[in-house]
Amino acid sequence: MGGPDAQPRPTSSLGAEPGATSLARNLSWPHLVAMGVGAIVGTGILTLIGIGADKAGPAVLLSFLIAGFVCACAAMCYAEMASTVTASGSAYTYSRVVLGQMAGWVIGWSLILEYSLVVSAVAVSWSGYAAPLLRDWLGLPMALMQGPHAGGIANIPALFIIIAVGALLLTGAKKSATLNLILVAVKLSALALFVWFALPHFNAANLEPFSPYGFARHMGPDGVERGVMAAAAIIFSAFYGFDAIATAAEETRNPKRDLAIGIVGSMLICAAIYTIIATVALGATPFTRFANSPEPLALILREISQPGAAHFLAVTAVLTLPTVILAFFYGQSRIFFVMARDGLLPRGLARVSKGGAPVRITVFTACVVGTIALFFPLDEIVALANAGTLVAFSAVALCMLILRRRAPDMARGFRTPLGWVVGPVAIAGCLYLLASLPQSTQIWFVIWNVVGLGVYFIYGRKRVAKAAQGDDTES
């Protein structure tokens, strides 16, 4: 069915196309681990523990474990695919080379949704921390620091931080990754400080009753969806971010080794951090005190009479939340880059600078996510990011299983232990979490993909076909 690459590619051709526009290889595994930790440890632990506690009570610990287990299975599938298909593009590239062009487009379209919403949402979250400081220090009116949905005109600080991160990425992957590593260290020091002050106040009685809202997702009398699985479906977003590492395949010095270390290593580190922080938080203060709080950890520190530590944690959030923006902005720009290089988006966007940075696609990405952050309310649609991610994770696990069957002897830098168990568990877990998302989110996700298929048939497939016939003269 139309297009030169509508069918899966032979396994001998997996990876980047010979002679294709390539990126500079400057990254090693410490940069990748820091990128993963920077992406994963962010708004998830700083805000979602409050949202999760509101939905599940102390049993939010189970929600973290369930979401983390599903993500760990998906992470191992990612590690195997990333060490086998050493080209940029993450789940989009794996799906295209294993399942075919249309499947690649659907997954790429889902990743565009995920990354755009995450970058924009974190930028708006950062603006929420920064706005009071900017008002007090510079006298900026709140109308210029909030979107129309909040009674303002436009969220200028959110646009500013996106532009700043985009400018940093234009300096090259290595410089931005090195700064990211430093900021991640600062972020972890703030979380360690939280544990230091909160742990002495741990009281096991605060964990009772452990599961006041039950396990399955259900609608509470107040109209809020509750239960361990309802919390897990939202908390899932606290763990993803490791997939951004896979987009760095073409900029990694030793991708077959370093990508697996970066993906699995960052997941293990973050799982340990989340378990410790969540347990200490729930034990230090009754969950009803910080449930649904936009700053639960800082609130807990104030509850235990540590206002200085709470202020330090808030300032640290302003300084380090850009690491989340950087990781997802990086991943978004690289997915756009590969889709443009493949012809599914305008090929002119795939140009790189002399230093190997994709300048046009970085500027294009900044325009897309900056517009969303500047004007649009994200609180009701951010769950869409989870829907796109869950579909992408399922596709990666499926690709791993198909490639195991199609090319069992292919050299792999990393092999998923018990692959024929881990892969199906990752798929089933992701689909179950997808079904646990709010129905409105599922409807909007279907609409998004219907629009995506329309774009594919109207533009993308025809463009690839023209390129194969030698008619692509786009600059």
TrEMBL record:
UniProtKB keywords: Membrane, Transmembrane, Transmembrane helix, Transport
Parts of the chain that traverse the membrane: 32-53, 59-81, 102-129, 149-170, 177-199, 228-249, 261-288, 308-331, 357-376, 382-403, 415-435, 441-459
GO terms, molecular function: amino acid transmembrane transporter activity
Source species, domain of life: Bacteria
Record's bilayer topology term: Multi-pass membrane protein
Cellular component terms per the entry's GO annotation: membrane
UniProt subcellular location: Membrane
Protein's name in the database: Amino acid permease
Origin species: Brevundimonas naejangsanensis
